[in-house]
């Protein structure tokens, strides 16, 4: 394998820039993708953020640009799922192309059209954008793609899960057929493969063997448990398992804060990793976790993004992830560097189907295990106590304590009773962790399974008298209720304006920079759309109110319903 940037046939200006950036060797994805792209091949690369994928496509893309075109024409296009990524990728391309006088621009929802228009008029070589905004600009005749010879689909799986398929197909359809197309995706699902088959020519596959996809060194098991007994179950497990650094996943941010708090109350050093923490605070938490001062870190999938810690002994899915890929990502954080890891999943009876889907996806059976019984927990506690005690006895370092016991014996206390009282005191911290009762798992019949998000176009209900969904009326298990952890918002565009569910997810997720999976049920009504969003993302979604664009309508507001 190539180990030197000089061997990749890159132009001197690009070799110079990587040297200035102090990149010593190409990463695996760079070593494989750069030569293929320089040859003009279409490439499907399975790789993730952190693999160096941006330079893998940016360097050959820059080299393949025709220089000195007057006026400039858009020659390369990168599609990204979110505005944040668009900005990040555009910045990276500008950095890699700084000796080539290239013009790069990010376009994304929420940006002033006038600004994009003025800059595009000046002439751009490379555009990086989210599919929705790119389409808007094309529709308005501000952006022309007839000179595009390179297209990169970045984080294709994310774009597809956000409902951007139509937009992507439309954009690709407006670029010359002889273009070079490259696709990067963390996972190559059937839909990603379908997109590639349709729009790419004899694509070369590059798979970077990722630690996260290898689950073999990780022992996986699950416990079937009622929702209300999860905390008690987790406490028992933490107590009896030989756990090192443990990462626990919850569905919502509020849930992670709550759980960390519960752990602390039980005498377990824990902290919630919050996606909004300032970088410095995040590093502080992570350093404490790495150094062992913190035993448990509780996080959502979003907060754990980019988390790179080698020595995690246990990953616990306190809440099941939204999709099987997220499960693989989560548990890939343990069992690293050849060490054994344990992945534990708590599953409620009505979530069993999610577990089946995970097993189907990973082609790996997850064994059901039995929770430690109350008796086992107590026995384990005593074993540990005796073990600790014998260690101290062997060390024979309790000189002063021995004097105290002698004094007490001289006062007439039975030394056996003194020892027993001392043990009682030593165990007092156990009072923080009462062993709570756990019920038999029961399947509670519900009208619909939680987690099986309904993105139907109309409010469900019985017959034609079905009521409009209103968060004010909260029949607990009816479709009108809002799931725990979700907040209902309303968007001032509806069926009359041609709004589609995929568009709602795509637009909001990309503009507010949240995962598509954070958006739950969507009810499209005539004049408005109601949608449920995980509460941890609400401030971000509302923070962009007035910045959403639907079809030809810009400045669309979103508010609490
Ligand atoms: P990416 O996966 O493209 O988001 O890149 C992740 C990080 O790796 C970025 O901070 C890059 O600047 C850095 N990077 C990319 N390629 C290399 C390389 N060959 N050597 C060292 N760092 C790199």
User: How helical, in percent, are the residues?
Assistant: 25-40%
Question: Helix/strand-derived class?
Answer: alpha/beta
What would you call the shape?
elongated
Q: Spell out which ligands are present.
A: adenosine monophosphate
Cα(first) to Cα(last) distance is 57 Å
Count of helical stretches: 19
Mean pLDDT, as a whole number?
Answer: 84
As a whole number of angstroms, the C-alpha radius of gyration is 28 Å
Low-confidence stretches: 210-214, 446-479
- How many strands appear in the DSSP assignment? 20
Sketch the major β-sheet: 7 strands, parallel
The main sheet orders its strands as: 3-4-2-5-6-1-7
Fraction in beta strands: 15-25%
Structure overview:
The chain has a 7-stranded parallel beta sheet with strand order 3-4-2-5-6-1-7, with helices on both faces. It has a 7-stranded parallel beta sheet with strand order 10-11-9-12-13-8-14. A 4-stranded antiparallel beta sheet has the order 16-17-15-20. With 561 residues, the chain is of the alpha/beta class. The model is unreliable at 210-214 and 446-479 (pLDDT under 50). It has helices at 12-20, 28-38, 53-63, 83-96, 113-122, 131-139, 156-161, 165-173, 190-199, 230-240, 253-265, 279-290, 324-331, 352-362, 374-395, 399-410, 415-426, 501-512, 538-543, and strands at residues 43-46, 76-79, 104-107, 126-129, 150-153, 180-185, 204-207, 218-224, 245-249, 270-273, 296-299, 312-317, 341-347, 367-368, 486-491, 519-524, 529-534, 548-550, 553-556, 558-560. It contains 19 helices and 20 strands. The N and C termini lie far apart (57 Å). Helices cover 37% and strands 17% of the residues. Bound molecules: adenosine monophosphate. Adenosine monophosphate (AMP) binds at residues 23, 26-27, 30, 49-55.
